[in-house]
Amino acid sequence: MRNIKLLWQLYIPYLLITLASLVIFGGLAYWSIRSFYFNQTADVLTTRAGLVGREVGLPLAAGDTAAAIQCCRELAPLVQTG
Hints:
The protein is mostly helical. It has helices at residues 6-61, 65-75.
C-alpha cells in the first residue's frame, strides 16, 4: 500500500475547493458587471431617445424622411453619437 502523506491528502481537496470558489465568484462578478453595463447603456439610450424623439418624430410623422435624416445629423453631435 502506498504511503501518502497527510499534506497531499489535504492539499488536493483544498486546492479544488479554492479553484471552484474562484471560478464561481469570478463568474458572479462578471455577470454583475455585465448586467450593470447593459442597464446603464439602456438608461442612457432611453434618455437620449426621449430628448430627440419629438424633433425627429414630427418630420417622420409627416412622411418627410429627408428632414428627419437632416435633423438626426444636426442632433448627433449634441447627444454624443456618431
